[in-house]
Amino acid sequence: MRVNDFIDIWLFSIFVYYSLKYLTAKPQRPILTFLGLVSSFSFISKVFNLTLISELLKMLFTVLLIVIAIIFQRDIRRFLEQLSSNFSRSSNPLDLRGEVKAQLIKILKNLASKKVGAILVLPRKSPVMNVITGGKPLYTKLDEGLIESIFDSRTPGHDGAMIIENGYITTISCQLPLSKGTRLSLNLGTRHSAALGLSERADCLTFVVSEERGTISIAENSRLIYDVSEKFLDLKLTHYLKAKGKKENTRRHWLAYINTNLYLKSFALLIALLTWAVNIYEPGISYTSFMMPVEVRSLRPEFVIKGMSDDIVKVTLSGPSSYVSQLKKKTQKILLDFSEVKDGKTVFSSSDFHLNLPKNITVHGYQPNTITAWLSVYKKKKVPILLKTKGKLDPSLAISNIHIKPKEKNLSIPLSMDRESLTIPTEVVDLNKINQGNNYIKIKVALPEKMRLDTEESDLVEVHFDVTEKAL
Question: Does this model's pTM top 0.70?
Answer without folding.
Answer: no
